[in-house]
Amino acid sequence: MTQESLNDGQTNGSGSGPSYPDGSLAKRVAATLPLHPADKRASSTNLKRPVCLRCKKEPSTIVVQTSKFCTSCFSFYFEGKVRTGLEQARICAYIKRMEGEEQQQQPQSSQQPDPTASSKFGNARQSKSGRVLLGLSGGPNSRALLRMLREHLLPPPNYDAKKGKPHEVFAVDVVYIDDSALQPTTESRTEEVRQLVEEEGGESVGFNFIPLRIEDVFEEDKATTCTAGFKQARSISDKIVQVSSLDALRSLFSTIRPEKVPRTALANARSRAEDMHRLLITHLLRREAERREVSCLLTGENATRRAIRTIEGLGRGQGHKMPMEEGPIRFRDVYLLKPLSDVTSKEVTFYLRTNNINSLIPDDLIVSELLSEQDGSGSGNKASIGRLTESLINLLEGNVPGTISTVNRTSSKLVFNDEEASHIAANEEEDKSDQVFEAVGPSMPLRRRKQTKESNGAGSAIAELEQNVRGLGLGGQGAKVYLSVKSWPHSTGHHACPLCQMPAQRGLQEWRKALTVDKKQEEEKVEKVDEQYPINLSDLLCYACNLLLDTPETSPSDQTMPLPLFVLEDAQRRIKEKRL
């Protein structure tokens, strides 16, 4: 202590030392001493919380990557992201309605147009294109999407078509698929999910609840049989067998994931069961959407699930069809949309909590054992490829908040390589080049000139399309979405895999034979044709579905498994296409 600081005090009468009635020296000394733990807690509570990045007033309640939002600003931020996907659904309904009107006017072009139809938005309420289909599981994602559909896509109860903002969607078919048949310890949640729909208004606001069961994939209790021996080519019978849909479903899953599996093959068996479960659910939703002739199918996959599916799909050999499965596409006559693809699981959970929205706790099919009441060893992070990928993405996102967005931005750049169309175009280009080569000679850069003409023609076509879109009355944002929807890939079912109904690779079996050690033995197996199973399914499946129908080494050579009839129908159609 310096002399100057001592002189700041006064001496008491007893001469026992200096005293400091104003406490100036005590404050200085206390400032240099370390804080007591209790003082640390008190000082930390006095610190101000970070301010919201958007409004600059309210304290932040959630951190999204590096951005901090208060509750009200986060709701605006969340709804703005989801509204982009809902705007795509509105434009898809508009496109489907216009296509329907064009088809109706073609045979009766000489007749007068319908006077009850609006020149700008038509009879969307009476048209089937004014309906969309939502796949509802009751979990947080689909539950949040159900609320967003009611608030931002469906018209309000007092909507007036002549005065209000035009709406293209007037009804939502809410489909719930009960998969309790695959889990012996669980009960059906159909009534619980129905109650969630009623909480949002039910039929009074335009929601039509449609309960289905996963065993409905075997329609009318009919199925076809397929060989299921270990390391055997998959062949199916061309005959239809009568079997209970529930028994056929259980037999299918018990074949690809039997109860007694070697520990080294247990993770692969679980992965196959998860893939088959997701494939059947997806098929039921698409089938219901096509039969009801809705404009688009909406599912509640968020950005976190999308990143997990991307890495998981690469590990399962689904890279070829990944642009068709993970992004928005037109599947035959139905658009497939994922409006929550830009929001993470954390954001969905916070949105439900702040808005007091109830949801069901989803059954974790990755952890639980399908068709097994024992063997609880599947609760670890290595239980399956899906479980391992999920733990990896969540771990990386916790340490590096930009992991999910980086994976999704990278996967969004993937473009589907239509090998069938490229093969046909290459043959046509080669024929034309040979003809011109004979007449002109090799010095003329034919390919470069043609590409320049095609690029110029494509640019003028796009400019003309943009000019025509401005006159549709969709608004500036709607016109941009319209052009984006028109550029989505279209899966027509040509050269499609009979199981997943997505495009299959060309020359897949030749590629697999080249990687086989005993090539001669494999060729001999493929050449044998069984009269009972005449259709070689392995030649028609994509690579991922070939792996999906694999069975463990404990499977006997004469084992068979049931498959839904749509697999047989698509396989027969593919064979006819090859013959033509």
Automatic annotation (TrEMBL):
Residues 103-113 have a biased composition (Low complexity). It comes from Meira miltonrushii. Pathway: tRNA modification; 5-methoxycarbonylmethyl-2-thiouridine-tRNA biosynthesis. Belongs to the CTU2/NCS2 family. It holds the Pfam family CTU2. Residues 1-11, 114-126 have a biased composition (Polar residues). Residues 1-25, 102-126 are annotated as: Disordered. It is found in: Cytoplasm. This is Cytoplasmic tRNA 2-thiolation protein 2. InterPro entries: CTU2, Rossmann-like_a/b/a_fold. Plays a central role in 2-thiolation of mcm(5)S(2)U at tRNA wobble positions of tRNA(Lys), tRNA(Glu) and tRNA(Gln). May act by forming a heterodimer with NCS6 that ligates sulfur from thiocarboxylated URM1 onto the uridine of tRNAs at wobble position. Prior mcm(5) tRNA modification by the elongator complex is required for 2-thiolation. May also be involved in protein urmylation. Gene3D superfamilies: HUPs.
